[in-house]
Hints:
- This protein has helices at 7-12, 29-47, 80-101, 104-108, 111-127, 130-138, 143-169, 174-182, 188-208, 210-216, 219-222, 238-241, 266-269, 290-302, 314-317, 327-348, and strands at 52-53, 56-57, 59-62, 67-70, 73-75, 233-236, 309-312, 353-359, 366-367, 373-383, 389-396, 402-405, 409-412, 416-426, 435-444, 451-459.
- By secondary structure, it is α+β, with helices and mostly antiparallel strands.
- Strands 8, 9, 10, 12 and 14 form a 5-stranded antiparallel sheet that branches.
- Strand 15 (435-444) and strand 16 (451-459) form a beta hairpin.
Amino acid sequence: MDKPVLQDDQDSGFYAKHKKVYPREVHGLFASLRVIGVTVLLGFYYFVPWMYWNGKQAVLFDLPNRRFYIFDWTFWPQDFFYLAILLIIAAVALFFFTALAGRVWCGYACPQTAWTEVFLWIERKVEGSRNKQIKLDKAPLTRYKLSRKVLKHFIWISFSAWTGFTFVAYFTPVDQLASSIWNLTLGPWEWFWIVFYSFATYGNAGWMREQVCIYMCPYARFQSAMFDNNTLVISYDSVRGEPRGSRKKGIDPKSKNLGACVDCTLCVQVCPTGIDIRQGLQYQCIGCAACVDVCNEVMDKMGYSKNLVKYTTLNALDNIKTNVFRPRVVVYFVLLIALTSGLLYSMATRIPLELDVVRDRNALYRTTPLGYIENIYTLKIANKDLQDHTYVITMTAPFKSTFILRDKQVKVSANLTTNVSARIQADPVDIKAMSEKIEFQIVSINNPELNTTAKAVFLGPKPK
């Protein structure tokens, strides 16, 4: 006998059909904080490529030349470990803030949240409030509806294109990029990344929105591993709010055997992911606190005390003392401070100079016509500074030797590498071992504090 098919399965094909979420505009403390966060972060994103520092673009990741400029700092591929440490710090910071205050990153600083807020703002300016948007979408296609939709998507696409242009401006000098676009001489890779990033912004912030947070973002899935009963989350006080029901303003809810919740559903209408916070903690909640702001407005109008929906902990809801400084939070905090301090100290004391010594591997050593033992080296001097420098090269060895260079002083231009050939000769009588450690030093004439050393070995015959 065939298995019966449920009606719900026939209608939905086992999956609920996606319904567009129309978040209602909300005002309040947390909404203002979110606007400030979005303004600062996106303002930083769009403004930085236009900043100049000492005659150069302040922040530029020059991939073709493998140079990364951040104000006075120039990073080379050899400095990749700084990026690794930075990513570790970001991961630890995410763990720390999640264990402490839930999904505050998602609600206030995530790029998906930031750009979605901008797209929602544009949508409200063009199509009107939440109710007007719903009414417009349900209405038949008219000239007015078509004009509103075309205008909205035109602004969306234009803003997305500017976003893509800005993204590429971090990797191609912004003035060169703008000129190439204007003259239609832009390379294929620049075109690709402008179009790709523009399309991603338009699709994620304009169309997918909450679906990115709910279905695509892995953080929504593993965040529960970092939550506990002492983590700040947005919760509905069901003891105070239930049973819910509508009533007139000024009526004491106890007289009607009701809780503080008036069942206005505004907390659902303002939610960017379309959930009902009154159903308890849900992984779809991004912690934006829009429901807190709108519920407090309703409580004010009804004359009730605020914070029916609020930032709290599960322990606090159960009248158990909240423990903020629990072991894992302390461990995350100590790691975060240690890693950040180490990174800042390393970058502050970083010397923009590198010396690498490569010994000639074609022969262990050679004997000169005068009977001296000779080793040949290539000194690779990397000037990571933004200024040209002239360096003096010296060598120290534990045995009597002759250091031979074509030029004792070598000029290296800013952000370039120069190879210098060097030879060391020694009398076999003075060599006490088959392998002796030596050290090369380079010092800038312009700035003596700019100096570094590199160790190498001198190979010779077995002493008699």
